[in-house]
């Protein structure tokens, strides 16, 4: 098969979970003997446009490209500059002529992409993996008014409390605009049952959404320390430092533990790109107040994870929103580390409370501090949870699931109607 893979960035430019999963799968398709081309969208935050073409190289590899798509309406998820975008995308589709198009995100490309693909290649199979809630939520897909208030307008086309300038009609038109374009997609995939259920509530047909879990590339597990002879427990945070990822709550919990003079270490891995300056100032103050027990270690690359995981006993994922299938949880489980996580969304689905990790209330620094203190003082619990960890599937195994899906649908498309 010839498989064209779209994502809203490239891990070399923005090491997010969706981009990483998309590129891993594109490479797995090639290893399985298929032709795959990965195309990541980019804009002026990472690249400037090149005169005469939307496409740029990302490496010496001929099977990974960037497409500059800097004119984008975020509210409607719409590609503004269709006059430039359409001819270049048509050229790409007609040149590569894929059997299957696997879309991982429509940011920057625009929700018009599936319809354009269908018009250029009427018989191509279009599969879209749903990684988050951007299609539903105009407020960066978080589906939250506040950490304690979920979106009240889910599926109703009602007033958006987060964007007061958006009138009810704006929201209804946005919903209809996006749903109409998504009708060109043959089948959707969700990495979690929770996210699938949210999209069904929004109005996607349940029979069109299949669940396929995300996988991880094969890697030797990071060496674990003995919980019996460890002088202090080491917690690890991995990911961008953003308000919705809950890093502020984690630092507040760490401050409480410092004030109690508890022996522990918290290693925080990740940068804070494009964040509100007030938020940045707040977390910088918390880092100062919790040093040296809390170490801010900065951004990292996916290849660094195994080494960074080695000194860590527990991984903490304190997100405030309904995460779908956080990459960091899969990475922790791949390396045999129990996870302390907010018991909501796909996080509660990925980590079994009291079995292979611990759930805490979201946005609760006191509750998180108690959980961390309890975890640090119970070596027997650590051994039990670590022994029960389910390893995530390999990327190659997940790619095989997708390839069977692609092949099944191609066969169904070729069979004459009864």
Automatic annotation (TrEMBL):
Domain (Glycosyltransferase subfamily 4-like N-terminal) ranges: 15-215
UniProt enzyme class: transferase
MF terms in GO: D-inositol-3-phosphate glycosyltransferase activity
UniProt cross-references to InterPro entries, sorted A to Z: Glyco_trans_4-like_N, Glycosyltransferase_grp1
Coiled coil regions, renumbered to chain: none
EC number: 2.4.1.250
A Pfam family this chain is assigned to: Glyco_transf_4
This protein's UniProt keywords: Glycosyltransferase, Transferase
PANTHER family, sorted: SULFOQUINOVOSYL TRANSFERASE SQD2 (PTHR45947), TRANSFERASE (PTHR45947:SF13)
Protein name: D-inositol 3-phosphate glycosyltransferase
């Amino acid at each position: 098969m010839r498989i064209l893979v779209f994502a809203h960035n490239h891990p070399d430019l923005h090491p997010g979970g969706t981009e990483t999963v998309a590129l891993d799968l594109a490479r797995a398709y090639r290893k399985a003997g298929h032709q795959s081309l990965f195309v990541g969208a980019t804009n002026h935050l990472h690249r400037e446009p090149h005169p005469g073409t939307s496409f740029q190289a990302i490496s010496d590899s001929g099977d990974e490209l960037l497409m500059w798509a800097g004119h984008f309406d975020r509210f409607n998820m719409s590609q503004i500059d269709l006059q430039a975008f359409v001819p270049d995308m048509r050229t790409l589709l007609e040149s590569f002529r894929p059997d299957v198009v696997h879309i991982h995100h429509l940011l920057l490309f625009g929700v018009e992409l599936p319809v354009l693909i269908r018009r250029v290649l009427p018989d191509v199979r279009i599969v879209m993996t749903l990684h988050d809630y951007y299609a539903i939520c105009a407020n960066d897909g978080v589906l939250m008014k506040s950490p304690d208030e979920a979106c009240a307008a889910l599926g109703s086309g009602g007033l958006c409390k987060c964007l007061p300038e958006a009138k009810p009609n704006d929201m209804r038109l946005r919903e209809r605009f996006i749903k109409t374009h998504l009708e060109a997609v043959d089948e959707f995939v969700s990495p979690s049952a929770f996210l699938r259920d949210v999209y069904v509530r929004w109005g996607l047909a349940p029979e069109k959404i299949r669940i396929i879990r995300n996988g991880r590339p094969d890697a030797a597990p990071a060496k674990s320390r003995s919980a019996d002879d460890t002088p202090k427990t080491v917690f690890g945070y991995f990911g961008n430092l953003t308000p919705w990822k809950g890093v502020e709550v984690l630092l507040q919990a760490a401050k409480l533990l410092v004030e109690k003079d508890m022996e522990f270490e918290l290693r925080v891995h990740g940068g804070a790109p494009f964040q509100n300056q007030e938020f940045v100032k707040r977390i910088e103050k918390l880092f100062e107040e919790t040093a040296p027990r809390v170490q801010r270690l900065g951004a990292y690359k996916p290849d660094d994870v195994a080494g960074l995981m080695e000194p860590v006993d527990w991984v903490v994922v304190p997100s405030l929103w309904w995460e779908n299938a956080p990459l960091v949880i899969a990475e922790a489980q791949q390396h045999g580390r129990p996870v302390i996580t907010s018991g909501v969304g796909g996080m509660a689905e990925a980590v079994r409370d009291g079995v292979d990790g611990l759930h805490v209330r979201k946005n609760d620094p006191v509750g998180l501090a108690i959980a961390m203190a309890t975890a640090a003082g119970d070596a027997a619990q650590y051994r039990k949870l670590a022994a029960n960890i389910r390893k995530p599937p390999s990327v190659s195994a997940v790619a095989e699931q997708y390839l069977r899906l692609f092949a099944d649908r191609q066969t169904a498309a070729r069979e004459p109607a009864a």
